[in-house]
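Researcher: Let's do a round of design. I'm pasting the structure tokens now; please hold your answer until I've finished.
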């Protein structure tokens, strides 16, 4: 079932830590079913931007709108957790409890203080795990499943919030090659269901796999564009090393090959 059409707008957003400006006048908009892949060097502000969008930290300047309503108003009404789902790159210690009980914490904004999760809450959990084809993990200890399985459970837990916007902060960073692309396949499936999705990564190749828009964050500034607009100069400037960008077309589908120039034969 697809979500109804929604819009996310980031308007003139800036953020500073003390006197250091990390984000500078960033603006963009997205609608349901769109993915934006954010690329940037370590410390470029990718994670800070996600936290500002999610209102975990307040922007120094500018604002974020969801369907025309500012985040600070949504927060006062207690609605943020029903709109934004956030998958942090820094996961806490995995608790040694059944995965089902771990996943139910994703329903916390719908459960009143001292109230137990309802049958409806558990039905939603089961439906989301079925959607990701991981219902077999529900009875297992979350601490005793693999890293790739834990990441899928994290995504299912976010979906249990029933958000409209999902923010993935480097969701593949600690996974092996196969699990990286399993997670990307899940993200593509979420796109088809109408979620607004923002993903941070250090891997430009993920852009062609997801077939999505790209945002380059460098020196606090954001450049938006398509994968075709990624150039050697842009990436070289961002990562501070000479980089070669080559596009390869096979069976009508374009792929990108990116490597430091010294590795290009």
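Researcher: That's everything. Go ahead.
Model: Designed sequence:
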């Amino acid at each position: 079932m697809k979500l109804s059409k929604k819009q996310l707008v980031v308007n003139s957003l800036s953020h500073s830590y003390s006197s250091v400006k990390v984000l500078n006048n960033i603006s963009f908009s997205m609608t349901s079913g769109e993915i934006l892949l954010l690329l940037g060097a370590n410390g470029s502000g990718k994670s800070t931007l996600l936290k500002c969008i999610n209102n975990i930290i307040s922007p120094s300047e500018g604002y974020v709108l969801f369907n025309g309503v500012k985040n600070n108003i949504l927060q006062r009404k207690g609605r943020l957790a029903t709109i934004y789902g956030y998958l942090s790159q820094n996961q806490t210690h995995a608790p040694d409890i059944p995965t089902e009980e771990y996943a139910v914490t994703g329903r916390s904004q719908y459960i009143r203080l001292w109230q137990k999760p309802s049958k409806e809450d558990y039905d939603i959990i089961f439906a989301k795990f079925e959607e990701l084809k991981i219902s077999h993990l529900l009875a297992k200890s979350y601490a005793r499943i693999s890293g790739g399985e834990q990441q899928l459970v994290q995504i299912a837990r976010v979906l249990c919030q029933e958000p409209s916007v999902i923010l993935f902060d480097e969701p593949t960073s600690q996974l092996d090659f196969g699990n990286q692309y399993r997670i990307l396949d899940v993200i593509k499936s979420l796109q088809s269901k109408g979620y607004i999705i923002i993903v941070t990564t250090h891997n430009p190749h993920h852009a062609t796999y997801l077939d999505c828009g790209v945002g380059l964050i460098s020196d606090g500034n954001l450049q938006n564009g398509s994968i075709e607009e990624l150039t050697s100069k842009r990436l070289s400037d961002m990562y501070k090393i000479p980089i070669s960008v080559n596009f390869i077309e096979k069976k009508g589908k374009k792929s990108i090959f990116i490597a430091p120039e010294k590795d290009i034969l």
